[in-house]
Amino acid sequence: MKITMIRHAKVKMRWPFRCNSEEFDAACQAYDKAEIVKPSKKPRKIRKAKVFISDLNRTRWTAEGLFRDTDFTVLGHIREVKMNSFTDTERKLPLFIWYFFGRLQWLRNDERQAETRRESVQRAQTAIDRCEAEGRDCILVTHGFFLKILMRELKKRGYAIRGNNRPLIRNLQEITAYKE
Q1: What does the pLDDT look like over 73-102, one tens digit per residue?
Q2: Residue 170, burial from CB neighbour count under 10 angstroms (0-12, 13-18, 19+)
Q3: CATH number of the domain enclosing 97
Q4: Can you tell me the mean pLDDT for 45-64?
Q5: Residues pairing with 72 in the sheet
Q6: Which domain holds residue 43?
Q7: Burial code of 149-165, b = ≥16 C-beta within 10 A, e = fewer?
Q8: What's the number of domains the chain is made of?
Q9: pTM of whole model > 0.85?
Q10: How far apart are CA 94 and CA 90, in angstroms?
Q11: What's the CA gap between 37 and 63, in Å, rounded?
């Protein structure tokens, strides 16, 4: 069995370099609604694999650009891990500070974040269960941060991972998990 994971296409949005907590939260919401840069790859036909997309539009638009004559199944479990501002402040901080401390709170299961690490791991496990229940190859069009969680859980289940030798996952990058 093979599970191919694809990160969505590049999103058409410029993040603010510096922002306060309210502006950061608004930017995160805008990102979830923003359009994508259409994939330049030639669409391919999928014959046997089941294709899952998250419930965020950028994965649907990506899948429509990558695959032709293919039905997609929305699987909310593979959506991105939502991030909130780590504190309420009017002070404008660099974007990387918002990311760093927001993900640190997530890592520590802080309730300020919309989802805890435990909940994210549970979603990944449920998504893998769904793929395994299909009994055939699956393609997941999903999101960068969630992909890292998904890969970690796949490794725990004995899958070999191919296609990810960088710390960051690029847009449209394909990563494949194999299990004999």
Answers
A1: 999 999 999 999 999 999 999 999 999 999
A2: exposed
A3: 3.40.50.1240
A4: 93
A5: 51
A6: 2-178
A7: bbbebbeeeebebeebe
A8: 1
A9: yes
A10: 13
A11: 12
